[in-house]
Amino acid sequence: MVTGVLIGYYVPNVQPAFATVQFGSVSVPIAVGLLVMMYPVLCKVQYERLPALLTDKNVWIQIGISVFINWIIGPIVMTAVAWATLPDLPGFRTGVIMVGLARCIAMVLIWNQLAGGDADYCAILVAINSVLQIALYSPYAVLFINIIPGWFGAPVDTTIDASIWPVAQSVLIYLGIPLAAGFLTRLVLCYLKGKQWYNAKFVPHVGPFALLGLIYTIIVMFANQGHHIIDNIGSVFRVAVPLVLYFAIMFFLPFFILKRLRVPYPLVVTQSFTAGSNNFELAIAVAVGTYGIESEQALAATMGPLIEVPVLLALVYLSLLFKKKLAWNQKPSTCTSC
């Protein structure tokens, strides 16, 4: 992160160079990093087991919990903390809310893998949230930015009008491409070489590219916003407050509730990181498209991943610590991924 900021601040014309390499509203350098990051993780998913998993009642219960946390609790929590901490900064507040409305589809796969979560179950949740995101992001943006503030007598922002296509484009690029590549890779190589060779030879060789992609993506993101971060350091700290509160609440709420219900650790971690992660690519794209690249809304949306990365990395370490220190008394389950 520090390297990225230094590059962005001291190397001339970094941001214009990134801006010239775009696919629609998607930055190609960031897209490349995310695709490299996600591909190895999705190569590990045992797609052949998914039909059996989806016949398990316990899996559908967990899916229902995830949908409730992500699409009912998450937007309400982000809107509440944004208004509580940024009452005098409406532009930044709107950008923060836009981050909260964009549910996870990318980096959660990495956080889940690092913390020892269930990769198969995480893939199911990411796919379901992606479909719901296409349908719900636009009406949710109108509801939480245009309508709900008016219920409490606050001024409303009538500028936002997020169409479905940018949402669908983000999902197709950041999830559809690596998901299709991972599925086809596993299908073809397991057929040609066998599962034992695939798991023993191919996966260990391709696995490290996930972390390399993560490091590259972080450097590119911070380099792209180096000047914004330094020139608006006061606003960065203000925006960090609701974001840190949001990530902490959304992670620990399902973590300790599900642990108390004796849900196995891999599923608890998957639920928590799915709830605490966001699709920052989408939030930034919509904020830039609606308000402009130099707007407070776009800057706040950009701060989303810059705060999310260190916070969720810290939560990975906390999860691993809790795994060792806390007693995980698991109730009997028929879920084959447990």
Summarize the structure.
The chain has helices at residues 2-10, 14-19, 28-44, 50-53, 57-85, 90-101, 108-114, 119-151, 164-193, 195-206, 208-224, 226-231, 233-260, 265-276, 280-291, 296-325, and strands at residues 22-23, 26-27. With 338 residues, it is an all-alpha fold. The model is unreliable at 332-338 (pLDDT under 50).
Strand order of the largest sheet: 1-2
Number of strands: 2
For the record, the CATH architecture stands as Up-down Bundle
Averaged pLDDT, please?
A: 82
Q: What is the top-level CATH class? A: Mainly Alpha
Largest sheet: 2 strands, antiparallel
Q: What is the molecular shape? A: globular
Number of domains: 1
Number of helices: 16
Structural class: mainly alpha
Span between termini: 35 Å
Range of helix content? over 70%
Low-confidence stretches: 332-338
